[in-house]
Specification:
Elements: H1 11-15, H2 18-22, H3 33-43, E1 52-56, H4 59-64, E2 66-71, E3 77-82, E4 90-94, E5 104-109, H5 118-128, H6 135-150, H7 158-169, H8 175-202, H9 208-222, H10 230-241, H11 247-275, H12 281-296, H13 303-315, H14 320-330, H15 346-361, H16 365-371, H17 383-399, H18 404-414, H19 423-438, H20 448-457, H21 469-480, E6 487-489, H22 495-504, E7 516-519, E8 528-531, E9 535-538, E10 541-544, H23 552-556, H24 562-581
Parallel strand pairs: 1-5
Antiparallel strand pairs: 2-3, 4-5, 6-7, 7-8, 8-9, 9-10
Helix pairs in contact: 5-6, 6-7, 7-8, 7-19, 7-20, 8-9, 9-10, 10-11, 10-15, 11-12, 11-14, 11-15, 11-17, 12-13, 14-15, 15-17, 17-18, 17-19, 18-19, 20-22, 21-24
Length: about 575
């Protein structure tokens, strides 16, 4: 975040980055390959963008050596020969590989460690210290996810990844192991983003040079650095928003993109104020002081100076992006949810996010087609979801002062409360809650209720595509056509009800997920009926859809109300008919 301590408003820092504004960003947001190079040269004059890349090396390559592709800020793909038996944080220098032939530093990260045997310690933690509702299945799922991130792969099952994240972050494992694991987990999400971006650009009509600029822009975003090209950043925002990536990853990207846009705007505005020949030294100091209040979302008491600053920025020869972001922040529109903010720069980041949503939403079908985005997809990952993320970001300032479950509860409350969160919404909320949890330096303690919620969520279809036509039929029909009492379909299955079912009577296979649930608990029982991709489960029994006609009687007995039994009879007959037609 843009905290006053880590990003101070002082003369020396901003004199060192004058070239950022003068060499490229006055192109009014046009995509121009030369502006990227020119801006990067300017950024190189400060400590913000020394050309250093932190890359994650898969276990096998780290152990045996091999080649790995690194996408540079220039947009070029660099093939790097990784030596065998590397150590975490080991550095490599690529002579002449950067802008204008300058050297590149690679910082290597990996879960391979011959001495520590990280995998053994994590498996031991999962086997002995984590109290899962379904021990066998959940441990197996977590181990499978760990193997994927260890190999540098994109984990599609984010619910399972979040479960493992929480299990490791709330463990008593050495902090070094936790940090290395978290970096590997983050890398998995970045791999998913990179794959989506590359796939979309392959379908685009952009020139190779334009594609390189967008790929290079992602390198800036993932490094949390100022972005040299606003237009390329908006194009990248649209690509991610139009992808089929889960909303949790889209929101994570959107927050990083907003931070990159805000960092750039911050540099532009401060330099514009400080370098203006029209302003006296005293006026500059006053403007910078007022701007910092705006940037941080604080109430500005000196309204006269604020109006003068507004006028100065409106008339400045700077990119429209910078003017829009400032305008949104100055009017308090970047601060959503009415939460107090303790994080410096939060208002500017929120404003940058709102501007991003507006810019992407303005794109027409031809714009999307040129970028390779499939016509008919959304322009942004749901404005409500994104704005909820800004609310969570502002809440971070509050939650950071809390501890343990209190911090988790603060974020969940900002997004609607754990009692009403289900399915996909819960995925975003829990991902954000974990983000806050993992940001704490000490005092972490595992909350069993949070663990159970995360575990339960890993057994629900949220945003994943259901693999069978029968499964899709069940999901669509349980609530829309067949109005069962206490009947729910994914992703809107209450986590507390499914958690109770998993504890009492529902036993799932390792990779099995619930599509629909009819909850009969409270009617002299703690049971129900669950529908998965290829079978129906109840009271420690199950029947596959192909054998459904043999078990109707047993299923009907699970429902105490005659009306529900009649509905279930019709539903099962229709499932059999659908199965027969496959």
């Amino acid at each position: 975040m843009l905290t006053p301590n880590s990003y101070p408003l002082n003369r020396r820092h901003f004199l060192g980055s004058i070239a950022l504004v003068t060499l490229g960003l006055l192109t009014k947001d046009l995509i121009n390959p030369l502006s990227v190079q020119a801006n990067s040269q300017g950024l190189g004059n400060s400590n913000i963008s020394l050309e250093t890349y932190h890359i994650f090396v898969p276990y096998t390559i780290a152990r045996n050596g091999g080649k790995q592709i690194v996408t540079l800020r220039s947009g070029d793909d660099l093939s790097v020969k990784i030596p065998a038996k590397i150590e975490d944080n080991q550095e490599m220098t690529i002579k002449g590989g950067g802008f204008e032939g300058k050297d590149i530093t690679l910082v290597l990260h990996t879960l391979y460690d011959k001495r520590t045997q990280i995998d053994d310690k994590i498996y031991q933690e999962l086997g002995q210290n984590v109290k899962f509702i379904l021990p066998g299945s959940s441990r197996s799922k977590c181990k499978s996810v760990y193997e994927q991130i260890e190999d540098g792969e994109y984990v599609k099952d984010l619910s399972a990844l979040n479960l493992l994240d929480y299990a490791i972050a709330s463990s008593k494992l050495d902090s070094t192991i936790q940090a290395r694991y978290q970096l590997a987990s983050t890398n998995s999400r970045l791999v998913g983003l990179q794959q989506a971006i590359d796939s979309t650009l392959n379908e685009s009509t952009l020139s190779p040079e334009e594609q390189k600029i967008i790929k290079g822009t992602f390198a800036y975003v993932r490094a949390n650095e100022p972005c040299p090209d606003f237009n390329a950043l908006t194009a990248l925002d649209a690509i991610v928003a139009g992808s089929d990536l889960p909303s949790e990853i889209q929101v994570t990207y959107s927050l990083a993109s907003a931070q990159s846009r805000a960092l750039t705007v911050d540099l532009i505005l401060v330099n514009e104020i400080w370098q203006s020949p029209q302003l006296s030294s005293e006026t500059k100091e006053n403007y910078l002081s007022i701007y910092q209040e705006v940037r941080d979302g604080n109430t500005v008491e000196d309204t006269r100076t604020l109006k003068a600053l507004d006028s100065f920025i409106a008339q400045a020869n700077i990119p429209d992006n910078a003017k829009m972001v400032y305008s949104v922040a100055a009017r308090g529109l970047g601060m959503l949810g009415g939460l107090a903010v303790a994080t410096g720069g939060a208002a500017l980041i929120g404003a940058a996010g709102v501007v991003s949503i507006a810019l992407v939403s303005k794109m027409d079908g031809e714009d999307k087609k040129n970028l390779g985005i499939a016509i008919g997809t959304g322009t942004i990952a749901g404005a409500t979801t994104i704005l909820g993320a800004w609310t969570a970001a502002t809440a971070l300032g509050v939650a950071g002062s809390l501890s343990g479950a209190a911090a988790t509860t603060a974020i969940m409350a900002a997004l609607g409360g754990v009692s009403v969160m289900t399915g996909g919404a819960a995925a975003v909320a829990f991902g954000t809650a974990f983000w806050v949890w993992s940001s704490m330096k000490k005092g972490k303690k595992r909350d069993q209720s949070v663990l159970e919620q995360l575990e339960t969520l890993s057994y629900i279809y949220t945003e994943e595509e259901i693999p069978s036509r029968i499964g899709e039929f069940v999901q669509n029909q349980v609530q829309s056509q067949y109005k069962f009492t206490n009947g729910f379909s994914a992703p809107n299955i209450p986590l507390d009800r499914l958690s109770k079912a998993l504890e009492k009577w529902l036993y799932l296979k390792d990779n099995e997920k619930v599509i629909a649930l009819i909850d009969t608990s409270g009617f002299m029982s703690t049971q129900g009926i669950a529908f998965t991709d290829d079978r129906i489960l109840w009271n420690h029994h199950y029947v596959k859809y192909q054998d459904l006609d043999k078990s109707w009687g047993d299923l009907l007995e699970m429902l105490p109300q005659e009306s529900d039994r009649r509905i279930l009879t019709k539903f099962l007959r229709e499932i059999s008919k659908q199965y027969a037609s496959v």
